[in-house]
Design brief:
It contains 8 helices and 18 strands. By secondary structure, it is an alpha/beta fold. Strands 8-5-4-3-2-1-18 form a 7-stranded mixed β-sheet. It has a 7-stranded mixed β-sheet with strand order 9-10-13-14-15-16-17, covered by helices on one side.
Length: about 270
């Protein structure tokens, strides 16, 4: 299927079109419009208009994971779009926190959004087909709570504070003319794990590319180089990253991935 992606929100602005710490990508898949994440504020709505798009025209909206910088635009989306369901992973709740010294700061979805817009939210589990050629794929890698502990990200549960295992994170997978294209807006579970999970889920299909943040801004140069080599070894042909990757990590990735790698920024268009 002919596919066009436009970056609505990213850290890097486009001229007078602002950016923020967040991500939102509009997917035009054939005649369908899918909005992947809605950034950290209502900025996505202003940027969509400036880039020539209408929120009202969106057919589906998806949330990559339960963090504010991808979900805070949800109330604005519901106010301006009367038809689209918003697709969230079944484990999503208002329970994501980042540990700062002895304190834990809430970094989750907008408070009460699940109850206030229950009729607009679709909770999904397992491998979910959103529409023909479009899928939502959960993490299938064991032990991701080790990543949560390292990142000092926790979930508040009935058993107390537990390291986040990112079961609320999902990949949006598009079956395009060039092969499968994965959008995972922060890849907290690991970019290489994400590629492997999708490859194993669709063994008869070719994975062409991965788009999203890789959460590498706080990693050492050696760790980033290892990720770059592992991504290269998967054989995928296109990688586009930004947001929580940030410039330092991007430049290190570029040394290894070369022309395979592009940088996210507001207004960037990608065609597949």
């Amino acid at each position: 299927m002919e596919t066009k992606l436009t970056v609505i929100v990213d850290n890097i602005p486009l001229g007078q079109i602002k950016g923020e710490w967040g991500l939102s990508i509009l997917v035009q898949y054939g005649e369908k419009k899918i909005l992947a994440d809605v950034g950290a504020s209502e900025l996505f709505a202003d940027n969509m208009k400036k880039l020539g798009f209408s929120i009202e025209d969106v057919d589906y909206a998806t949330l990559s994971h339960a963090h504010y910088d991808h979900a805070n635009g949800m109330p604005r989306f519901f106010k301006e779009n009367a038809k689209a369901k918003f697709y969230l992973r079944e484990s999503i709740a208002e329970n994501c926190y980042a540990k700062k010294f002895i304190f834990r700061k809430y970094i989750g979805i907008p408070r009460n959004v699940l109850s206030d817009y229950a009729d607009r939210i679709e909770i999904v589990s397992g491998d979910y087909q959103l529409s023909e050629g479009v899928y939502l794929i959960p993490h299938k890698t064991a032990g991701l709570e080790k990543i949560g502990k390292r990142e000092m990200m926790y979930q508040k549960t009935a058993k107390g504070w537990m390291p986040d295992n990112f079961s609320h994170e999902q990949s949006l997978v598009l079956d395009t003319n060039k092969g499968l294209v994965i959008i995972n807006c922060c890849s907290h579970g690991g970019a290489v794990n994400v590629i492997r999970e999708v490859t194993e889920t669709f063994p008869d299909k070719h994975v062409h590319g991965l788009i999203g943040g890789f959460h590498l801004f706080n990693k050492s140069a050696d760790e980033i180089k290892t990720v770059a080599r592992e991504i290269k070894n998967t054989g995928i042909e296109f990688v586009c990253t930004g947001h929580c990757t940030k410039d330092r990590a991007y430049n290190i990735l570029k040394e290894e991935l070369g022309d395979k790698l592009e940088k996210l920024h507001v207004g960037l268009e990608m065609r597949f």
